[in-house]
Specification:
The structure is a homodimer of 479-residue chains.
Chain A lengths: L6 E2 L8 E8 L3 H12 L4 E4 L15 E3 L4 H5 L6 H11 L6 H20 L20 E3 L6 H13 L4 E2 L2 E8 L5 E8 L10 E13 L8 H7 L18 H8 L4 E2 L4 E4 L12 H12 L1 E3 L14 H11 L3 E6 H7 L4 H5 L3 E4 L2 H8 L3 H17 L21 E6 L2 E5 L2 E2 L6 E3 L5 E7 L16 H19 L4
Parallel strand pairs in A: 1-7, 2-3, 2-9, 3-6, 9-19
Antiparallel strand pairs in A: 4-5, 7-8, 8-9, 10-17, 11-16, 12-13, 13-15, 14-15, 18-19
Helix pairs in contact in A: 1-5, 1-14, 3-4, 4-14
Chain lengths: 479, 479
C-alpha cells in the first residue's frame, strides 16, 4: 500500500476494531474533540503516534486568549469578540478565513470558562498582553505550561474510562464505496524512529474521523517545499515529531490544502540551544524592547527591533547568518527580568566591556561603537531616526557595562496553513464540497490565523475547534 | 466518474486515441512544449478547451525578460544571469525555489534567441525596464502583444502538420497500474459555458502528459479558498476561462501544490473597465510616478505611490473600496504619454478645477486641498515626509488644472503558486518523489516567482520550462 495514500474500503480485508469516532492526535485539539464526542454519546478511539499524550501541546507555555472574561473585568479591561476579531485579521494580513475567525472569537470566552469549570484548569491571576493584541486578553495556565491543560484533559478522559492509544500512527484514511471517510489504517506499535516496526490494523469509524495531528514545523522536506528558505539548518521550537504525514493523507483523500506556505518563525530564538529554549526571555523582553540587533559582519543595525515576528524573521533570514542581540546592564535592570538561567546556559553572554563583546562575536569594534552612538542619540532626539523603533518608557542609552549578547537565528514556530475546514470543523475538498465523515481541528487546519498567528491564539483555536469537531463527528449523519 | 479525480487505467474500457505526448493548454508554455516534443521525435496531441489557440497568453503585452542579449549590448546595458536571479529572488521575497529560478535565468538568453531565430518572432528595437528589475532587460514583441509570439508558434506547428485540438478539455489524469501517468480523459466538443455538452474520450500518452493550462486568476472559488480577500467583486485581468480544473486534477493525482495563496494583484487597474484595460497606462505611468492616490472617504493619501504591486494592492484592499488616482496636466505632459483613449473610455476623467473633481468622486474638498498642499511641500523640502515617495526627476507640485482622476481597485493578475516541479519540469508529489510521465510548465506551476512575479518574467518562464517539458516528455523513459 502506498505511503499516505487514500484507499477504498473494498481493499480492506477485515476491520480489526470498530468505534464511532477516531481522533488522530492527543494534543489540545484532539483531547477536546474526544471529550466532546464522548459527551455526545459516541464511542471514541484516540490515536497517538508517540509514547505519551499531549503532542506538541505540552511544550506550549499554556497561554490562551479570550475576550470579555471575568478576569478582564476584575482588572478593568474592556474587550470584545469584535476587537479580538480585528486583531487576528490585522496580524493575519486579512488572509484569515473570516468565518473561522468569527467562530473562534465568539466561542473563546465560553471555551475558556469550560476549561476552568469543566476541565478544572487553574490559571494565574493575571491578564497579559502579547504583541498584536490591542488589549490584555491572555491567560496563563499554572506552571506556565500547556501540560497543565493536557493533564486536566487526561483526567477527564480517565473519568470516562477513555484511554489514549500510544504508538498508534495513522497511515491511510479509508473511503467507503459511497465516498464517506469510514476508517483509518493504523500502524500499531509504531516507532517514529523506526517506522517499519509494528503492524497495520484497520479501525472502522462509524461516525467520523477527526484530524488533530498538529502542524509540520519539524518536517523539513514538507516545509521546505512550501518555503524554500526553511532548510534543515533552520531549527524549530517544535518537538521533532511535528511532521506532515496526516496532512498528506488528508490531501491524498481529497482535502484542500490552504495557505501551506505561511509558516511562522520566531525571531527571538538562539541557535545556541535546542528548541524554544531560554534565550527568548532575554531577546524578546530585553533586547527587542531596550537593546539593538547588530549584523556582526557590518557592525550595524538593520531593523526596528520592535517589528513583528514576521518582519524580524524575514530580515534575519535575508541577512543569511545569525545576528547579535545586545543590551546593557541598565536594560536588564529596567526590564525587571532575571536572566541568570540564560547566562548559566551560555545562551546569553556577559562582558565587562564592549570591546570584549565585539571581539567574542567578531564584530568590527569601530563600527559597533558608531552604531551604538547613533542609536543612543535617539534619546536626545526623541526618535530613532535610523529605523523608527519606538522608545519605550524606561529605555535608556546603551552605555552601562556589563554588556549582554545573544546570537539570534529564527526557528520555525507554527504552521498557519493546513487542511481547509468549514465552521463545523468539516474538512472541505478542492471543489469546495464537504468530505463526509472527516473533521479537523487545531494546527493541522489552515486559514484561522492567515499570514501570521498572534501569541496565545493557538490554544483557543485548538479548544474551540476541537470541541466543535468532537460534537459534530458524534452528531452529524454521514448518510 | 468524479469530477477532476485521478483514475486508474483499469477503469478505462478502451483508448480512443494513442500518441506519445499529450499537452494540455495552447499558450506560450504548451506550444513551446509541443514544438520541442515534436522536434525530439514524438507524436503530440495539444488539447485546448477553448475555440482558439493561445489561452491567456494572447492578451499578454508580449514582454519577455532575458539577461546578456545582443539588444542589451547594442544599448550598452550590462546584465547577467546572476543579476536577474537576484532581482527575481528579491521580488519573490526569497520564497522562490532557487534551482528553478537558476534554470530560468540561465536559459533565458538562448530561449529569447530561439524565439527570434527559430520561431521568427520580431521584437521592437528597444530594451525596457520594469519595476523590480535592476537594469533594462525586457523586450517587447511587435504589436505589443503576446499574440505575436503565439502566431509564430502556430506557424511552426503548421510546418510540422501539427494542430491544436480545440474544445478539448482535460477531465481526469489516468494512472497505469504501475503508477505512471499514461493518459487523459478528454471532454471532446467541450463548451466551457455548458460543461455537460460533448463526450468523453480516452487519449493514451505513451511518453508523457504535459500540464500547461495556465493560472487560476478567474477561478473565484479556488482563489478565494487560498486568499479569502479575493471574492467575486475583485475583477481579474485574465480571460474568464483561467480556472483551476487541471491544477485540481494534478493534485488529485498526487502532485504537490505549492504556494497557492500567493496571488498577484495589479494595483493599477480600474473598476470602470473590464480586464487589464487602458487605465493602467495612466495610473502606473502618470499617477504612481507624478501624482497621488487619495482615499475618497478621508481625502487623504495613505501610501507611497511608488511602492511595489503587492504593497499597493494590499493597502487598497485593506481600505476596502476604490481610491482615486490623481494627477494634473503638467504630470501628463511631463510623462510624455497620450491618454486620450482612457478619457474617451471615461476610465480617466478630466476636470477644470479641483472642486469639480472632488465633487465627482465625493471627496471632502477641504481635505483633498490640504492633502495636496502637504504633498506639494515635498518639492520645497526635497522629500515626501508623509510617505517617503521618491521624487522623480521631472515631477512637480500638483497645481496645474485641468486635473485628471481614475478610480483604482486591484485586479487579480497572476497566480504565483501551483504544481511543484523539478528542474526537468517533472511534477513532484507530496513525498517529494517524481510522478513518472507527468510534466508541467508555465503559470500552472508554483515556485518560480515566489511571493511576487516581476513584470515580463512570465513569458520567459513559459518558454524556458515549456521547452524543457517538451524535450523531457519525449526523451525521459517512464519505465
Amino acid at each position: 500500500m502506498k505511503e499516505n495514500a487514500m484507499i477504498f474500503e473494498d481493499k480492506i480485508n477485515n476491520w480489526d476494531e470498530v468505534t464511532d469516532v477516531v481522533v488522530i492526535g492527543s494534543g489540545f485539539a484532539g483531547l477536546s474533540a474526544a471529550i466532546e464526542a464522548y459527551e455526545a454519546g459516541a464511542s471514541v478511539i484516540v490515536l497517538e503516534k508517540m509514547k505519551a499524550s499531549g503532542g506538541n501541546s505540552i511544550i506550549s507555555d499554556g497561554g490562551i486568549a479570550a475576550p470579555g472574561t471575568n478576569l478582564q473585568k476584575k482588572y478593568g479591561i474592556n474587550d470584545s469578540a469584535d476587537m479580538m476579531y480585528k486583531d487576528m485579521l490585522k496580524a493575519g494580513l486579512c488572509l484569515n478565513v473570516p468565518e473561522l475567525v468569527r467562530v473562534l472569537v465568539d466561542n473563546a470566552k465560553d471555551t475558556f470558562k469550560w476549561s476552568i469549570d469543566y476541565l478544572g484548569v487553574e490559571y494565574l491571576d493575571r491578564v497579559d498582553i502579547f504583541g498584536g493584541h490591542s488589549v490584555p486578553r491572555c491567560y496563563t495556565a499554572k506552571n506556565v505550561s500547556g501540560s497543565t491543560i493536557i493533564k486536566k484533559q487526561i483526567e477527564k478522559m480517565n473519568e470516562f474510562n477513555m484511554k489514549v492509544r500510544f504508538k498508534s500512527c495513522s497511515k491511510n484514511l479509508i473511503y467507503s464505496s459511497d465516498e464517506i471517510i469510514c476508517g483509518v489504517v493504523v500502524r500499531d506499535d509504531y516507532d517514529y524512529k523506526n517506522p517499519e516496526k509494528g503492524r497495520d490494523i484497520n479501525v472502522k469509524a462509524n461516525k467520523g474521523v477527526i484530524l488533530a495531528s498538529g502542524g509540520f514545523g519539524s518536517d523539513v522536506a514538507f516545509r521546505k517545499a512550501q518555503d524554500p528558505r526553511l532548510i534543515e539548518k533552520i531549527d524549530t521550537t517544535n518537538k521533532p515529531f511535528a511532521t506532515a504525514e496526516v496532512i498528506k493523507q488528508a490531501i491524498n483523500a481529497g482535502a484542500a490544502p490552504i495557505q501551506l506556505s505561511h509558516i511562522q518563525l520566531g525571531p527571538w530564538a538562539s541557535p545556541d540551544e535546542k528548541g524554544y529554549g531560554d534565550g527568548p526571555q532575554f531577546s524578546e523582553y530585553i533586547v527587542f524592547q531596550y537593546g539593538v540587533i547588530i549584523n556582526p559582519v557590518t557592525g550595524c543595525r538593520f531593523v526596528n527591533e520592535l517589528s513583528d515576528r514576521k518582519t524580524l524573521s524575514d530580515k534575519l533570514l535575508s541577512i543569511g547568518h545569525p545576528c547579535i542581540g545586545l543590551a546593557d546592564v541598565k536594560a536588564v535592570e529596567n526590564s525587571g527580568w532575571n536572566i541568570d538561567r540564560c547566562i548559566k546556559k551560555k545562551v546569553v553572554r556577559k562582558y565587562d566591556t564592549l570591546e570584549e563583546l565585539a571581539s567574542f562575536y567578531k564584530i568590527p569594534f569601530k563600527k559597533i561603537e558608531e552604531t551604538l552612538k547613533e542609536f543612543n542619540k535617539s534619546f536626545e532626539e526623541g526618535a530613532d531616526k535610523s529605523f523608527g523603533k519606538p522608545l519605550i518608557e524606561n529605555a535608556a542609552p546603551i552605555v552601562n557595562p556589563p554588556y549582554y549578547g545573544i546570537r539570534l537565528w529564527p526557528k520555525v514556530h507554527f504552521t498557519m496553513g493546513g487542511i481547509r475546514i468549514n465552521t463545523d470543523a468539516q474538512v472541505i475538498d478542492l471543489e469546495g464540497n464537504i468530505i463526509k465523515g472527516l473533521y479537523a481541528a487545531g494546527e493541522v487546519t489552515g486559514g484561522v490565523h492567515g499570514a501570521s498567528r498572534l501569541g496565545s491564539c493557538s490554544i483557543t483555536d485548538c479548544l474551540v475547534f476541537g470541541r466543535i469537531a468532537g460534537k459534530n463527528a458524534a452528531n452529524i449523519s454521514t448518510k
